[in-house]
Every structure is written in C-alpha cells, then in structure tokens.
Amino acid sequence: MSETVPLVPLPRHVTLAGPGRFRLGARPRVGVPSAELLGLGRVVAELLATAPGVEPVVVVGADAELRLVLSGETPAAPADLLDRPAGYEAYELETGESGATVTAATAEGLFRGATTFAQSLDQDGTAPAMRVSDAPALPWRGLSLDVVRRFFPVDQVKRVVDLLARYKFNVLHLHLTDSQAWRLEIDGRPRLTDPACWPGGEGSRNGTGRQHYTRDDFREITAYAAARFVTVVPEIDLPGHSHAVVTAYPELAGQAVHPLLAFLDPRAAAGFVEEVLGQVAELTPGPYLHVGGDEAFGMPHEQYAEFTAMSLRVARATGKRAVAWQEAARSGALTPQDLAQWWVGADHVFDAEELRGRTPAEYHPLIDIAAASFELAPGDLPKALASGVPVLASTSSTLYLDRQYAEDSLLPAQSERRGRVGMASYAPRTCRELFDWHPGELKEFGGAAPAGVEAAIWCESVADFDDLAFLLLPRLPAIAEKAWTQQVTGWADHRARVRGHAAAWERLGWGGYYRSAEVF
Description:
31% of the residues lie in helices and 17% in strands. The protein has 520 residues and is of the alpha/beta class.
C-alpha cells in the first residue's frame, strides 16, 4: 500500500478501500464546519492549489469535495506542546470516488489530515480510495534554522514553514544570534543589527539590503507559521557565540583569554539580558524562549553557571518555557520546567591532534580550550535526565542536515558541488545512513523516548536558498517520519514513498533539492 500512495511521514494505519479513484477537478471546494475556521480552510486550499491548474474555493458546510469535520467536543489547547493530551493531533481520513472527509477533534488534527490528503494526490489531481487513521508519536517535531550565517528574508522563511507544515513538523526554531551577526531588531540597541558593527563585516556576504528582521517581520513570520500550526521558537544564543554583541557593545564583554573567544560577563550584561529576552518574549506568541548556552569556550565555569542561571531565570520570568542547549546542564540550574536540547552525538569527535596538524600554532591554545569543553559533553544528557528535565534529541550524528552527502547525485554538477555544501568537518553520510535510527532506540535515553526530535541546519556553507534546498531535501522528510510515525519503517519502503514527492518540491520552489542516486 505504501508503495502506491507516497505518504510521508507514514500514518499509523492506511488501508486501500477499493479500485476507485477521486479526481479533484479544477475548482474543488474545501468545506469547513463553521465560519470561525475559514482561515483554516484557506490554508488547506493552498495545500491543494499546488496541484497544476487547481484553484480551490472555501465554503462552510459539508457540500464539498474535501470535507473537514470536527468530531465531538474540541479539547482545550494548552500552548505548551508537551502538555497536549494524547490524540490532540489525531485524525481520520476517508477518500472515495465522491470526495474526501477528514475527521478530527481539533483544527490542528484537521490540518494534519488535510496534508495527508494533499500528499495522496498524483500529478493528475487524483487520489486513491483509502482509509487513514493517524496520530503523532512525539509532541515536538522541529527544525532549527540558522539565519545568522545565511540570512533568509521573510518570504524564504515562509517557504520553510510551508515545507515543515507539509511534513507535519510543528516547530521552527530560529537561530537569530551568533558570533557573526544579530538578526532581530531590539528597541534601544540599534548597533546589534548594524552590519558595520559586526565582526569582520560578516553581514556583507549575505548580499545587499536589510540584513535583519524588524519587529513587524518577526510578527509576520510567527503569524504565518501559527496559521499552519507551526510554533516559532526564537533563540538568543548567550553567553558564548557573542562576538556580534561584544563588538557592538564592548562594555558587556567578559575577560576573554583570546579575542576569538568572546563571552558576556554575567554582572555587566545582566540588564542587557533582561532587556533583550523581555522584548523577544513580548514579540513571541509561542510558549518557548531559547537562551542558547552552548560552546561558551574559555568562560570560567563559575561565571558560566551564574550567567546560565540568570538567563534561565529571566526567561521563566517572562512567562515562557526556557529551552537551552545541553551544556546548560553543567550549570546545575535546569529544572523540569525547562527543556534541554542534546546535540553532541556519539560520533561528534573533537580530534584536537588532527586540528593542530592543519591549524597555525597561534590557534592551538583555542583548540585545547574547545577540546576541554567537549570532554564534558558525555555527562550533559545524564545530568539533565537525572534532574527530570525533558530533553529534545538533536544529535549531530543523525539530525544535523548540514552534513555532506556521501552518495553521488544523478546530476554530475551536484556531485561536484557536494564537496562545498555541508560542513567539511563532519563525516559525509548517505541518505540511508541518516535514516537508519529511531527515537525509541536511542540508548542514551535509557529506554525512554525523548521529549521531541529537532533537526538542525547550520549555514556556514550555505550561499543561497538553493543550497538550503540541496541540504534539506530529500533528507528532511526522513526526520519527519522519525518524529511522527510510531512504528519503525524500513528504508526501501520510505525511499519508494519519498521519491514521489520530487514534483511537489519543484512546484513549491524547492527545485535545488539533491538528486540523490540512493533515493532516486
């Protein structure tokens, strides 16, 4: 069945209901149960409009080709994804010769079912008769997007949201600040977003024009995402990765052992942290605020612990749930009300000797400092779990999508390009190698499932949007399957389904995807 209907992620139960097929037509109607859900209907209509020549219309009522039906009493919608009741996003889809019906208890469930129906349509706009019963395995299914090393304007971020929604992701984690630049406008701190104040003029490599998001831009992104049931999680990465901050406002800097190892002083920057996190929280409708906390190389432990405790406390005081990278566990300040994000995978080996061999001697002390930090990494996840802190799996081993491809492309030019796009310091992996794992089998969690799964795309090697497409596709749908699908699926079955999505990627503006010889 999965070989004939290219559904990704694979639903829990799919049954073909006969030989008949439903043809969508040029002007299909999307029926919503009430006028309050017309906005949902319009978003669903956009999903169907990706079929060539299709212009859906939205109506209230059941007289429609795609009927969205609320079942029973709609449960309350807690803002926190981890607090959602079981079955909150569950849906049933039934397609026959006369049309399709999605039934769910929530608008979010209706949307998830509609994405499944949209995927079932072939290029001629027809869908098989089938019954689907489905619900997610994990409540947090995300992508972390680095908009610092490569700035993506609002319209391109919206295209990322569309892709996430299509594959039932529900989190877009925006990495907004780092050593190279600061991408979100903060009232009263104009130098943060002035490329002239960034180290080495880093902002210039992103081309001309404005190189940050205004407050209105950020509101536009979060509203667009929310309409597609994607929660935006903004990250302000502190106290390390702070060159852009200390270049713009040197008075906030701690006493670094080297100019390349900048960090913020917990006392000098206390007011800055309250000011920035307060503004970002006010702009953010979602319940989360990511405070970074990773790779504060060269920062004395006592200062790091003090700073991390402060930033977590400030984030909580805004009413948000604090999220931090795994190193925050070293501070002892994480609580079960926070979230930790585990990223240093078992194969993330920091080979200091190899680095010294290809690095000028003047930088060797920096290598030693970074190596000392990575030596502590294996203890971070056990500390967080022992403290009852929910942990997101973002392990670099399988969830960092800025890794180079190991297999060739069907296009010779792409095969040559794969040596440039992706982090050279990571061992290349094939699509199949990145697929062969399951959240329930992560031994680091001691038999328990993580609180969620989040892929990451870092953009040091990304020159444009096509490079982003090159790295994300066809690998991102595999991550969707790990996070959504309860059962363990096999590579051959997944490959047969995902290869049928290439035409949709082309229509959606993701034509730069990698034509992996292993997939296609």
